Amino acid sequence: MPGRERFEGRVALITGGGSGLGRATALRLASEGAAVVVADINPDGGRETCRLIGAEGGRALFVQADVTRAADAEKMVAETVEAFGRLDVLVPSAGVGAGGTVVDVSEQDWDRVVDLDLKGVFLSCKFAVPAMLETGGGAIVTVSSIGGMQGKGGASFCAAKGGVVNLTRSMAIAHARQNVRVNCICPGWVRTPINEAVLKDPERRAKIADMHPMGRLGTPEEIAAAAAFLASDEASWITGAVLPVDGGYLATGP
Ligand SMILES: NC(=O)c1ccc[n+]([C@@H]2O[C@H](COP(=O)([O-])OP(=O)(O)OC[C@H]3O[C@@H](n4cnc5c(N)ncnc54)[C@H](O)[C@@H]3O)[C@@H](O)[C@H]2O)c1
Predict the structure, then answer these.
(1) Cα separation, 223 vs 1, whole angstroms
(2) Residue 17, ligand 1, Cβ within 6 A
């Protein structure tokens, strides 16, 4: 693992940082020197992530926020700048999974999934970009999914995650000359609370693992490593990129 210097002096905001991929990314960035703001709707998870970072000697602050609400998204960015003086990295990881065909999905459920998985990313970026511009730029790593690149998954989930991919590209172009890089990762299946209901069954877990050419699920740390790379200066000429982190899943074709 690279030393602490990659994010020394940088400030990162991770939404959904109270669990799963967001927590692993928060821990990874903190381990490389970033001061981290963990934003989550769930205070227990968010505070636990901050405790874990503190136990390793890192700096972290929890901000309770529902990223589907503009006022909360604005507040989490304002509190980040107030606490640490700047914002360099945003990873909007808060999200939900969802199954169901377009016929099965209720209007209410569609709104719930698209509000969090797509609008939550929009709102987080809407307030983060101006804060980044205050100090000369920054990096955003959005979290789509293999379901954002092909259609094997719930209708609302695939629609929202496909939206995240193209929102990433649009933001990357719009802010390229302002030194804000925007990239997207598309994780394959990683066992976290989001999909525990499906993956707790060993037979289903084995079947799903087998859908990935590498024959296994990913780990939160493997997703965090990719997010950290794209957020770091090592990716200084990478923007608008969509990176599968999926054990080869998307290589099997749409
Ligand atoms: N785990 C996977 O297999 C996988 C695969 C592809 C993509 N993803 C994506 O990765 C992201 C993170 O997923 P995860 O596996 O870490 O899930 P998770 O359930 O472990 O974590 C999601 C976090 O988001 C928080 N959250 C939920 N609603 C929120 C809201 N309105 N405002 C703020 N925070 C909210 C939850 O409290 C939780 O801490 C999601 O966008 C998900 O779609 C996950």
Answers:
(1) 14
(2) no
